[in-house]
Amino acid sequence: MDGRERTACCQERGERTVTNGLADKIVAGDVRSAARLMRAIEDGDRAAFEELDRLYARTGRAYVIGITGAPGAGKSTIVDALIGVFRGRGKTVGVVAVDPTSPLTGGAILGDRVRMQQHCTDEGVFIRSVATRGWLGGLARAALGITHVMDAMGKDIIMVETVGIGQQEVDVTRLAATSVFVLTPDSGDAIQMMKAGILEVADIFAVNKADHDGAFRTKADLEAMLNNAGSHPDGRHPAVVLTEAISGTGIEDLAAEIMQHHDFLVSHGCLEARLRERASLELAEALESALREYVDSGLDTAARESLLDELAQRRISPRTAASRLVRRVARP
């Protein structure tokens, strides 16, 4: 891999280019073309999504793992350690690290790829940071498309790391086949999990920083909560694993639980249901985007401003305004 490819391995900065023909190059293994298409997807380039449409038939082979949890729980360190484990098993790995958005640039500000830079010279690893761009929740809209690009690149495993914890983070469980929730001892994350509904949908829980006081108690409390929560949607009791990601303690155990969950889904016919959940999420995203484009293209500025005036003056509600927009552009 030359210097240019190593740069693209983690993330291509600032370079904008035409997207025509990138799909064929990506399937042929061109790393720079993949980085360009990902950037264009994140920028909302319509031509990029047309290229993504061409790639779609070449996807569906990668195993997608969601990594979520509160800020500071050590998600990026766990992802970094898991990359090493999976590469040691001969698996190629993609990482989509969803970062908060800078209010000044609109770009990702945490730069998780910096934390994982030791892997950037590895041809079997591709890491991409994605900005949330103000979306409520940790899963950026662009992350869906970028996972498809990595899938088409031939990555065996794709890990999607989210910003934090919240109701919207539950969408990660719909994008991923296996969802891992990371928490720390006595952090209060369990209460947040219950509020967000994650307790009912996460497949594996990693109690990270297990060298801290209270780790075993947190594990026991979490297992008790899971026992009281009733049956999991796929019928498998979620595993709870103690990890200390900086030293690597427990990471092999976590990787083993992830692969055991994969085997369970396959043997019990649950993987197809997970893939349908992902398809449902993607369809909803595509419908929302298509409707927005349709409305924008069929509404003149004066009509939009008139509706905004009524909305700002509280003469109509947002829902009523939206209904009027749809009826106006759908009128023959």
Report on this model:
There is one protein chain. The chain is of the alpha/beta class. It has two domains: 56-269, P-loop containing nucleotide triphosphate hydrolases (Rossmann fold, 3-Layer(aba) Sandwich), CATH 3.40.50; 279-330, no CATH class. Helix content is 51%, strand content 12%. A seven-stranded parallel beta sheet has the order 3-2-4-1-5-6-7, with helices on both faces. The chain is globular, with a radius of gyration of 21 Å. The protein starts with a helix and ends with a helix. Residues 1-8, 11-17, 102-109 and 134-138 have low confidence and may be disordered.
- Order of neighbouring strands in the sheet with most strands: 3-2-4-1-5-6-7
The low-confidence parts are 1-8, 11-17, 102-109, 134-138
Q: How would a textbook summarize the main sheet?
A: 7 strands, parallel
Question: Any idea of the CATH topology of the largest domain?
Answer: Rossmann fold
> What is the average per-residue confidence, as pLDDT, rounded to a whole number?
81
| Structural class determined from secondary elements | alpha/beta
Q: Give the tally of structural domains.
A: 2
Query: What would you give as the CATH superfamily of the largest domain?
Result: P-loop containing nucleotide triphosphate hydrolases
- What is the CATH architecture term of the largest domain? 3-Layer(aba) Sandwich
Total helical segments: 15
- Total count of strands: 7
Span of the ends, CA to CA: 56 Å
Order of helices and strands: HHHHEHEHEHEHEHHEHEHHHH
What is the quaternary state of this protein?
Answer: single chain
Shape: globular
